[in-house]
Write a structure and sequence with these properties.
Structural class: mainly beta
Helix content: under 10%
Distance between the termini: 21 Å
Number of helices: 0
Shape: globular
Strand order of the largest sheet: 1-2-3-4
Number of strands: 7
Radius of gyration: 11 Å
Strand content: over 45%
Length: 71
């Protein structure tokens, strides 16, 4: 899955985290399975922890690109 250097964010039973290879993950905390994952264009590492706002989650990579998801 790559290296995880930032803290995750949690919304209900989903843990969100990004890795050093530019992949964002949503992991079901009850079942322990990956619900979905997405790779930023270019596979650039995540910068900081994901941000949860309501039912939305945002990831930022080291290039400053922001990616948002509705959960």
């Amino acid at each position: 899955l790559g290296n995880f250097t930032n803290a995750p964010a949690i919304l209900e039973n989903t843990l969100f985290i990004g890795n050093d290879r530019g992949r964002a993950f949503a992991i079901d905390t009850e079942k322990g399975v990956i619900k979905w994952s997405y790779v930023f264009d270019g596979g650039r590492a995540m910068s900081g922890s994901p941000l949860v706002n309501g039912k939305h989650v945002y990831f930022v990579n080291i290039d400053g690109r922001i990616l948002g998801f509705d959960e």
